[in-house]
Prior knowledge:
single chain, mainly alpha, five-stranded mixed sheet, 8 strands
Amino acid sequence: MISVLSRLSDTHTRWLCLAAAIALPLLLYWLSLPRSLTLEDAGLFQLVCHQGGISHPPGYPLFTLACQGFVALTWFDNPVIPANLLSAIFAAGACGVLFLIAEQLGINRFFSALIAVSYGASQAFWGQAIIVEVYSLGVLTFLICFYFGLRFSIDGDQRWLYCLALGYGLALSNHWPVVVLSSPAILLLLLHQSATFLACLRSVKFWLLSVGLFLLGLSPYLTLLQSNPEIAVYGPIESLPELLKYVSRSIYADGTKAATLWDKWQFSLWLWSHSAQQFGWLCVPIILLGIWQSFLRLPRLYAVSLIVLYLGTTQILNLLLSFTFEYRFQSVFNPYPVIAYSSLAIWLGFGAQHIAEGLVSRKIAGYLVVAVLLCLPLSVVFSNYGDNTRSQSAFVEGYGETVLAAMPADAILFVYGDYEVAVLGYLQLVKGIRPDVELREWHNLVLSNRMMSPLANPAAQKEKREAFISAQDRPVFTVSKWDINSVNQGLFYRVDPRPQTRSEYVAGFEPLLDLVTEAYQQELFFNAQEHELAYSLLFRFGRHYTQLLLDSGGLPADVVPRYEAVRSTFPGALATLEQLLLAPHQDNAKRALLKVADSLLLKIDEARYRRDLAYFYYYYGQIQLMVPADEEASQTAFRRSVETYPERDNPAFCHLQEHAQECE
Length: 664
């Protein structure tokens, strides 16, 4: 084994190990790369990469420039692949830089390559590496900065600080919040050469060069100054104050008012568990051993730096955010710590190397030790394979194509949110599907054909929108249900000033509904966004079919079993209860409605969203107010609703006796 390690440490093998650290993750990403549109921010980034424009705050100009250039220089039959592939290339590059960092920290090259591949296959990082997202570039740029800081701390050459100044500006030009939170780790490295670092800070030449290089790294932000962007969440950015406001994310809220300290505590516990899952549970004891070994083998500031790096975008970020602890926000938080998880990889390397050295000292056959340790990256791959193999995922595009295909010629379709504007916008503007349909964003976001600024007064936007709709002789549809006269057609609403009915049956949605129902029941989703889209579709069809049944007294024969399947899910049953409560009631309605509510209570474990759970308790309270009224039971249900979702838009709030006067 000693001879094996010595040969692997030879200079001639360094490039081979580095190549393996890059090539193996890249191969893994190519095999698992989605070949169709995904959710998260993929639709918006695909639009910006292909059509040009401005991504959501803070703009991510470095990624945008790279993606637009890469898309322009490459050609694939499938337009979703280039941007996804670029993210994979950045991720593989980050694995290569992690190899260099581990090597500088004294980890043998064999183990440096091993942990680089393991990090590339870790759960959250792999998931972000194969979709068009900014996190793989964020990890790459930060690790480059960490490497520059480490090299300065080792040899004190101030040229590394100049490289760091430029690299740090570029890192901030991609995703500044996660980079800033991770930066104290780099500062600790610099303090290892405190005397040399302080001497540099006293030099005017050093400041001039460093600031100049740093500003050069920030220069991509100037590309966000656009007067007529094709795609832009909040419209043009035409002045420096507007740019600073956009980059600061001051117009882009993270979190909810309903979040409490209990939510932060739950997220804190979840982050420890989530961290343990990144490399699979087999690696957890090796990582813990590696933390101990890092304090024995490294200078104290280096070891502390790795701790600080881990805490930055995990526990410290949790303190800064206001997320309610539920499925939706767990998925949102999922990619934030990908930089922090590089510390886990380094600790894995120290732990694995210590185990190998111990086995060698006990004269265990060297090749057997190598074989056992090679199982580490393989175990990581197999642990995360099911979560990240998305080459066959086609659910999202299938939904969007079904909506567009159902539109009549020259229709106007109002869309809103990632599931609508990003998906349908990509299909039309990038893939060229149904160019005759005019897509418009309900709140004047994202698309360039906005009626006015999305930051304008909501009342003014409503007046402008209503005037536009009333002047149309073309059919107008909305995907979401808004406060406007319309007819529910299942996947969307047909705007009608004088509707004769609440719902109209439209054939052709059944294949999508069957796919969604099966996927929901078997939990065949890759993330919370896909689950939430399916959840909303089941709710839509639960509402639609119940309205059809109540209004016409029957459903088409082939719809009946599908309605039963929809009602067997929590969202479908909740929508059914909602519509039954809105219907005229006879004297014995309470008993029947309580039976429906009690059956829904059996599905309560499916209620992953606090708002919908709160509505269930609200509906339950409404039922208890029916004859014969049970005031105590209704107040208990309303109170439970408000405790679940303590926002003023919860209708249960005004039904509580202690708040009744506030709502008058």
